[in-house]
Structure formats: structure tokens, C-alpha cells
């Protein structure tokens, strides 16, 4: 989605093809996903939901069209493919560190694994997200991974950081979409980035 936001300034048109009904629904929920989708649509991004790319058609060695499974044909000069993140955790299978059915490392709000003293953070983990009723989620976003660092550090020192995960910020068109994922009883956050900086 960051690529789509960036390309709105550079391209004549930008289209997003998505298997889900709403972008980010699995990670952030239906309501947040719809709000983000509306923000993108207001900035000339066209969505083709609940479909996938069937064929890329070229002419004289250059991309001309993207054919969707829904039979829709979209004119295109460039196609950026983002197919999700698969955790590279196979090396942990015999370690005693728990992995879920998709290969992610489940952690608690302090980023601790099922093994005492072993912590994990980043794209390879699922963590309880307070504003999703502590449902374990994986949010493959660099800012989320970055925010988990201080939580992991405090947790490894035996301190309850009072924060399941810091914030997820995405700067788009001068607007910040910000989600707070605070743990139970949380009364503080890590410092905010001053306005105008990302």
C-alpha cells in the first residue's frame, strides 16, 4: 500500500488488486481497512477487490494490460507484485520455540516466546493486539517491527512495558493514519514523532 500511495504522485493512475474484501482486514480489522481504503480512493487509487491477476499481457516487450480473474482487463505500464510475507522460521522447528500453523512465532505482550528468556519481534511474530480483543495478529510493516524493539528490550529486563505494541503509523499524502495498540492498564506511549517528520 505504501507503493500505491507513492505512485499516486508519479503515475497517471494506480490500481490495487486484492484477494480480500477489504485491505488490511486480517491485520487491522474491517473498520480500519475500510477507512484506509477510502483514504486511498480519495487519492485516485482504484481497487479491484476479491480477485487476482490471471495474466500479464505485453506488446513489443512492454507490459500493456493486466487481466484479472474476474475477467476485468486493466491497462498498465508497470505491475508491482506484493504477495505477502512468509516467515523464515524453519530453522526453529526443533528448538523448542513454538511456531503456529503458518510458521509465525507466537509471543505475549512483552514479546516473549513460549521459552522463558527468549524474545522475538518483527515480521516473524504474532502478538496480542489490544484493540482486536488481544487476538494474535501479524502486521508485516517496518514501523511495527521497529516499535516492537523497545517493548522487547523492556520485557527482557523483566519490566512490563505496558504496551502490547507501540503505534503503527503510515504517512500518506500528508495525513497520518495512526493506530494505538495499548495493553491492559496502559498509561503511556513511546514518544511521538514531531509533526512533519516520519
UniProtKB/TrEMBL annotation:
InterPro entries: FAD-oxidoreductase/Apoptosis (IPR050446), FAD/NAD-bd_sf (IPR036188), FAD/NAD-binding_dom (IPR023753). One of its GO terms (cellular component) is mitochondrion. GO terms for molecular function: oxidoreductase activity, acting on NAD(P)H. Residues 1-149 form the FAD/NAD(P)-binding domain. Keywords: FAD, Flavoprotein, Oxidoreductase. Pfam families: Pyr_redox_2. One of its GO terms (biological process) is execution phase of apoptosis. PANTHER family: APOPTOSIS-INDUCING FACTOR 1, APOPTOSIS-INDUCING FACTOR 3. This is Apoptosis inducing factor mitochondria associated 3. It comes from Rousettus aegyptiacus.
Amino acid at each position: 500500500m505504501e507503493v500505491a500511495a507513492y505512485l499516486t504522485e508519479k503515475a497517471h493512475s494506480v490500481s490495487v488488486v486484492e484477494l480480500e474484501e477489504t485491505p488490511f482486514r486480517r491485520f487491522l480489522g474491517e473498520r480500519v481497512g475500510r477507512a484506509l481504503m477510502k483514504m486511498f480512493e480519495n487519492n485516485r487509487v482504484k481497487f479491484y477487490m476479491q480477485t487476482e491477476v490471471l495474466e500479464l499481457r505485453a506488446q513489443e516487450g512492454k507490459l500493456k494490460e493486466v487481466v484479472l480473474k474476474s475477467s476485468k482487463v486493466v491497462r498498465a505500464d508497470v505491475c508491482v507484485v506484493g504477495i505477502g510475507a512468509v516467515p523464515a522460521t524453519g530453522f526453529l522447528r526443533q528448538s523448542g520455540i513454538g511456531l503456529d500453523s503458518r510458521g509465525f512465532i507466537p509471543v505475549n505482550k512483552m514479546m516473549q516466546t513460549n521459552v522463558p528468556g527468549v524474545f522475538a519481534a518483527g515480521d516473524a511474530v504474532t502478538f496480542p493486539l489490544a484493540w482486536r480483543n488481544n487476538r494474535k495478529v501479524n502486521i508485516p510493516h517496518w514501523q511495527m517491527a521497529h516499535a516492537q524493539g523497545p517493548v522487547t528490550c523492556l520485557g527482557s529486563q523483566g519490566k512490563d512495558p505496558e504496551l502490547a505494541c507501540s503505534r503503527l503509523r503510515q504517512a500518506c499524502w500528508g495525513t497520518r493514519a495512526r493506530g494505538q495498540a495499548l495493553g491492559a492498564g496502559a498509561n503511556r506511549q513511546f514518544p511521538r514523532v514531531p509533526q512533519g517528520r516520519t
